[in-house]
Amino acid sequence: MSGGGIGAAVGRALTVWRRSVSARVVVSTVLLSAVVVGAVSWLLVVQVRDGLLDDRVRSATAEAETETVQAVDRLVGGSDFDVASQLELVAAPLSQRGAVRGYEVLVARSDADPASDLTSSGSISSPGLDLTSVPRSLREHFTGSTQLAWAWTSLRTTDDDGTTSEVPGIVVGTQVQLPADGRPYTLYLLFPMEQEQETLALVTRSVLVADALLVVLIGGVTYLVARQVVTPIRLARKVAERLAAGRLQERLRVSGQDDLARLASSFNQMASNLQRQIQQLEELSRVQRRFVADVSHELRTPLTTVRMAGDMLHDARTDFDAPTARAAELLQVELDRFERLLGELLEISRYDAGAVALEVEDVDLRDVVERVVRQTATVAATSGVRVDVREPGRPCVCAADGRRIERIVRNLVTNAIDHAESRDVVLTVDADEHSAAIAVRDYGVGLAPGESAMVFNRFWRADPARARTSGGTGLGLSIALEDAHLHGGWLQAWGTPGGGAQFRLTLPRHAGDQLRHSPIPLLPADAEPVR
């Protein structure tokens, strides 16, 4: 498998691990079970091994003691023989019985140098026995002791056909004294442990097979148990997703009287309550939207009449006395504001009804900014505000509804002039391969923490006691946000108390594209660090 295939497989496995509760439960249970079962099995194998070894040591030492007693009896009966005959008298019967019972025999002088070769020290052994099978440590033991001793070893032998074999074994040594020369000789019996090794291997294989079957069974049982618990949860998730998608009639099926059944009943009750409340809110919202639309339309006729009368009074104000002329001017200003408010209420009602459509064309945001600056020049001059435009010197074109984009920018600029407190207002235009943006920066009162999200609410004002220089209605930023969303764009705000604010409009260069970033940072470069 290639590196890419392995990476994809690992990615899919990680995805399943993150998303599936049953997979995590099954894998965790199997791993923990494997550890526990492995530890128990290891202890069992160790106990069996120690038992086999202990039993073999006991049987070997007992047989060595018995053979030593019989060898001493034979030496007493053959005390008139010479050394070689006595050695043969001891070794020959032992070799014959060893061939039958499966052990090897070696008789060697105890006072020989442990580092020397046993072959050169007058020893006698079973045919084919490699004399290096006797550990040096055991030979050193009998240079100063007559007590029975044993040691683990590797038993090496050579068959008649020249085949050499090596198996684990145990060497048991006892000391006897030959009457012929009075010297001590050590009788070594070397017992192979092939049978014990095979038994231990069989036990180990059986335990491993049993462990594997047990872990698989535990995994299967865990999967079944986890499925019984996770399946209702998955059904609840799917129903919750349908509810979130607007299918409020979806309900869970209730079966039984256990905890999951009671959870399903509670979920259904919650869904019913939510459905009822959402329907009530939808009805209330529908009535409210209808009321706003109806009132806005109904006010058109009296507003037209009042507008006509107001225009007549405003045109004739030079014939009135000063207080009456001032009243005619104020009436004209408020009628203008009232007319804008009705227009924006009608626009909001169209957004609420979903009856707004875009007229998309290629729009250069630099031209939009230039037109808005010209339109607001009088208001800026009256407020003592200088509007500075910073653009990259290259086209910043995007697919948009030019009229709505111009309305957004005009709302942002007039709002900045209102709150600039006679300081400069900076408009920044920029674009990259995927998006285009306009940022409006002022250095006025700014926004308190949390107000950057509330500023787009309908009729919201940071300071209700503050006068509106431009005669705003309180709906401009709400409509601007709806216009931005209609284009698939962003309208975001940043501000700090006393440090001014910045509003950023970001639009995709192509209609239908999804925004991922903006070419203009929301936090201005000249912003004071927050302490």
TrEMBL record:
- Transmembrane spans: 25-46
Superkingdom of source:
Bacteria
Keywords in UniProt for this one?
ATP-binding, Cell membrane, Kinase, Membrane, Nucleotide-binding, Phosphoprotein, Transferase, Transmembrane, Transmembrane helix, Two-component regulatory system
- Name all HAMP domain ranges: 227-279
Read off the InterPro entries from this record. Answer: HAMP_dom, HATPase_C_sf, HATPase_dom, His_kinase_dom, HisK_dim/P_dom, HisK_dim/P_sf, MtrAB_MtrB, Sig_transdc_His_kin-like_C
What is the predominant subcellular site recorded for this chain?
membrane
Q: Give start and end of each Histidine kinase domain.
A: 294-511
- What reaction(s) does this enzyme catalyze? ATP + protein L-histidine = ADP + protein N-phospho-L-histidine
The subcellular location is:
Cell membrane
User: NCBIfam families this protein is in?
Assistant: MtrAB_MtrB (NF040691)
Q: What is this protein called?
A: Sensor histidine kinase MtrB
The species is Nocardioides zeae
